[in-house]
Write a structure and sequence with these properties.
mainly alpha, two-stranded parallel ribbon, 2 strands, about 70% helix
Length: about 270
């Protein structure tokens, strides 16, 4: 859902080409996105989609009070959406449209989540489709008359989605999916000092693994692409070219997704952190 709403939102931005709020009167606290268009707010879209996707899919797996989950989902998505206003990045219209678009996508896709999940994890065609389709969507992203980070950001998300999708499929084929133990839905485990310490350790191991993967694969993929196209390493702007940006970002974050879904959980098991 994250990849779906972000791709749709980013493409809509670059097709509609509606500007961000003028500064002044707003005070912009983020300057990296000056080249991006405004409507819809993809932060609001992602926050809404992630919060409510987790809320709607969790009851079949974990026992919890739905009202508490709903309160958390509303709070988290509202805080992210409001942050886009006080940082000067979006207008109220941008944020409201982002929330509504995600809501519509959730309503339209919710009846098919279980079916898609089953096909994604069990069908032999799943990895065959995931990688080329998401790379194709990244490479055919709408061109602008100026450089904008939206294409690169979208490629990053689609690459991570492709890697994770293939990784979860492979885990299923290997028979090790790291499912919760017991009859689903399982009760939430008691929060103790030991479980909190294990959670912090898992977070640290995950961050180190994924950041290390990103650094290594990014450097290697850029080196190979620069060599292939005969570009000097000193040319930092070359990585903004589509034939460089899309392959290196897609490869890098596909590797991150694969490591996240295949290796990290196995490291947790070896270290006794699960």
């Amino acid at each position: 859902m994250w990849a779906l709403v972000m791709y749709i939102g980013q493409v809509m931005k670059d097709l509609l080409k509606l500007p961000r709020p003028p500064s002044p009167p707003v005070v912009k606290l983020e300057m990296r996105v000056d080249a991006e268009y405004g409507l819809p707010s993809t932060h609001a879209m992602a926050a809404t989609a992630i919060s409510f996707t987790v809320l709607l899919s969790a009851p079949s797996r974990v026992q919890f009070q739905f009202e508490v989950g709903l309160l958390l989902a509303v709070t988290l998505s509202s805080l992210v959406s409001l942050s886009r206003l006080y940082t000067g990045m979006h207008s109220v219209l941008d944020v409201v449209c982002g929330i509504l678009i995600s809501a519509v996508l959730i309503v339209l896709t919710y009846p098919y989540w279980e079916t898609f999940d089953h096909l994604q994890l069990t069908s032999w065609i799943s990895p065959v489709v995931a990688l080329p389709l998401l790379f194709f969507l990244s490479y055919t992203y709408p061109d602008l008359d100026h450089y904008s980070p939206t294409r690169g950001d979208t490629t990053t998300i689609l690459g991570a989605c492709a890697g994770s999708s293939v990784g979860y499929w492979l885990n299923k084929q290997l028979g090790q999916t790291f499912e919760p133990q017991g009859t689903l839905p399982v009760p939430l485990p008691t929060l103790t000092a030991l479980s909190a310490a294990r959670g912090a350790a898992r977070c640290l191991v995950g961050i180190v693994s994924l950041v290390g993967t990103r650094l290594i694969v990014k450097k290697l993929s850029l080196h190979l692409l620069y060599l292939w196209y005969g570009i000097p390493k000193s040319d930092e702007n070359a990585r903004r070219r589509k034939e460089i940006e899309v392959p290196y970002k897609f490869t890098t974050y596909t590797a991150v997704g694969l490591v996240n879904s295949i290796l990290v959980d196995r490291m947790f098991v070896l270290l006794g952190l699960l």
